[in-house]
């Protein structure tokens, strides 16, 4: 019997299972999903968990159940492509015929001294819980710094403001204006929300060092009671150490069929795959859609198309607390209550679809 092994139960591999089960998987093939947790985590909502405005239960989705789907829970420590096995921390060796790697990413600290040791994270559910315990346990009037004003940093800062009105919040933005790569209308709306809600956005920042109770912006020392890092990501260590061709960010380079360059049985999707697009849940799902088409063609010994349909990202939606939001879709900017409802609707649809 053939064996398709999926590493990580994130957005990409959830889409693979959704498309193959129950009726599109060959009768002589089984799926094995390996993950450290017994559920799918909605990573796009980790900021709410960290801020204390959402619970674990709200941001979990159950994995599918099927007689030809086997779940293995454990810590993955490596992939041996010669023997075609996945190595687990407890000594298990899981063989595969085809492998889809969707292990996601972790924080990238850009060599900033102390950043790894003294900052908190929202990259995993466990780390988001730890961040929640710290942020929501701070004394009244404490000062929190959030390094990185991308979507994660913006959503965390706004959600934390709604959760803890007493905190002083500083959002450190490396650019001259928040969301500088998007229309000024969008940038101005987000900036005005922060101004109205007393969140200090520090433009043109360059964090050069982090200490246990302070950070340095350029040469300026800024005392802080807690710092959350949202200033960049990189593939997880297992993927960075794989003996495959990689791009400048340590992500495996994949062919147009999303397998690594020298192995048509190993696919990579999501945040750890090289791509022209920035990491996102939607990108991981679109990559997975194409991997499923390629797998089904190869299983049937059909000739692959010369070109797969190109990925066209529709845009993004973000929240500013529970009542306001912003979106950039089809080169159009949407702000306010409508944008927030759009995000809530997308989340509801995702849960409904996967349940």
TrEMBL record:
<dbReference type="Pfam" id="PF07992">
    <property type="entry name" value="Pyr_redox_2"/>
</dbReference>
<dbReference type="InterPro" id="IPR051169">
    <property type="entry name" value="NADH-Q_oxidoreductase"/>
</dbReference>
<comment type="similarity">
    <text>Belongs to the NADH dehydrogenase family.</text>
</comment>
<dbReference type="InterPro" id="IPR023753">
    <property type="entry name" value="FAD/NAD-binding_dom"/>
</dbReference>
<protein>
    <submittedName>
        <fullName>NADH dehydrogenase-like protein YutJ</fullName>
    </submittedName>
</protein>
<feature type="domain" description="FAD/NAD(P)-binding">
    <location>
        <begin position="3"/>
        <end position="288"/>
    </location>
</feature>
<keyword id="KW-0285">Flavoprotein</keyword>
<keyword id="KW-0560">Oxidoreductase</keyword>
<dbReference type="InterPro" id="IPR036188">
    <property type="entry name" value="FAD/NAD-bd_sf"/>
</dbReference>
<keyword id="KW-0274">FAD</keyword>
């Amino acid at each position: 019997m053939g064996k398709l092994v999926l590493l990580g139960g994130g957005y990409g591999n959830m889409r693979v299972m959704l498309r193959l089960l129950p009726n599109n998987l060959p009768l002589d093939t089984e799926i094995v999903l390996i993950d450290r947790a017994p559920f799918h985590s909605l990573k796009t909502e980790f900021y709410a968990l960290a801020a204390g405005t959402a619970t674990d239960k709200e941001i979990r989705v159950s994995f599918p159940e099927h007689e030809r789907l086997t779940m293995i829970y454990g810590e993955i420590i490596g992939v041996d492509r010669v023997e075609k096995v996945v190595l687990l921390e407890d000594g298990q060796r899981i063989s595969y015929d085809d492998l889809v790697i969707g292990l996601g990413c972790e924080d990238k600290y850009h060599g900033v001294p102390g950043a790894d040791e003294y900052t908190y994270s929202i990259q995993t559910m466990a780390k988001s819980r730890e961040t929640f315990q710290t942020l929501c346990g701070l004394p009244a009037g404490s000062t929190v710094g959030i390094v990185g004003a991308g979507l994660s940093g913006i959503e965390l800062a706004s959600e934390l403001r709604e959760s803890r009105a007493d905190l002083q919040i500083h959002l450190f933005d490396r650019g001259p204006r928040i969301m500088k790569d998007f229309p000024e209308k969008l940038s101005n709306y987000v900036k005005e929300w922060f101004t109205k809600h007393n969140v200090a956005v520090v433009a043109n920042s360059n964090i050069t060092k982090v200490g246990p109770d302070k950070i340095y912006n350029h040469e300026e020392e800024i005392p802080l009671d807690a710092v959350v890092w949202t200033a960049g990501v990189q593939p997880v260590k297992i993927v960075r150490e794989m003996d495959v061709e990689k791009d400048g960010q340590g992500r495996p380079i994949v062919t147009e069929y999303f397998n690594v360059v020298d192995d048509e049985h190993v696919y990579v999707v999501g945040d750890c795959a090289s791509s022209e697009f920035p990491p996102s849940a939607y990108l991981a799902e679109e990559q997975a859609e194409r991997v499923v088409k390629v797998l089904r063609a190869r299983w049937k010994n059909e000739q692959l198309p010369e070109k797969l349909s190109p990925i066209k990202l529709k845009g993004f939606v973000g929240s500013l607390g529970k009542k306001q939001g912003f979106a950039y879709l089809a080169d159009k900017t949407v702000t306010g209550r409508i944008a927030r409802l759009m995000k809530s609707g997308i989340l509801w649809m995702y849960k409904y679809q996967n349940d």
